[in-house]
Specification:
Layout: H1 7-28, H2 33-45, H3 49-58, H4 60-69
Length: 78
C-alpha cells in the first residue's frame, strides 16, 4: 500500500512532538528514563520503546536544544 504525500511530514511532526514530550516527562516531571519510555510508548504514542529510543537518538540535536533553552513554561500539554 503506497503511503500518502503527507507521510513524511506527519512522521517529522510526530517525532518532534515525541521529543518535546520526552523532555517534559524527563526534565519537568523528573521521571526515570525507563518510566518515560514506558509512558511515551503505552500512554501517548503507541509505538514500541525501541522505536522511541531510535527517534530520540535521531533527533538528539533537537533534544539538546530543548534542554539548553530550558523551555519548561513554553510546552503545551496534550
Amino acid at each position: 500500500m503506497p503511503r500518502g504525500t503527507n507521510y513524511k511530514k506527519l512522521m517529522l511532526r510526530r517525532d518532534k512532538k515525541l521529543c518535546e514530550r520526552y523532555y517534559y516527562w524527563f526534565e519537568v516531571k523528573r521521571l526515570r528514563y525507563d518510566d518515560v519510555l514506558k509512558t511515551l510508548s503505552e500512554d501517548e504514542f503507541f509505538i514500541s520503546e525501541q522505536r522511541i529510543v531510535q527517534i530520540i537518538r535521531n533527533n538528539n540535536e533537537y533534544i539538546d536544544r530543548l534542554f539548553a533553552a530550558d523551555i519548561k513554561s513554553q510546552l503545551k500539554l496534550f
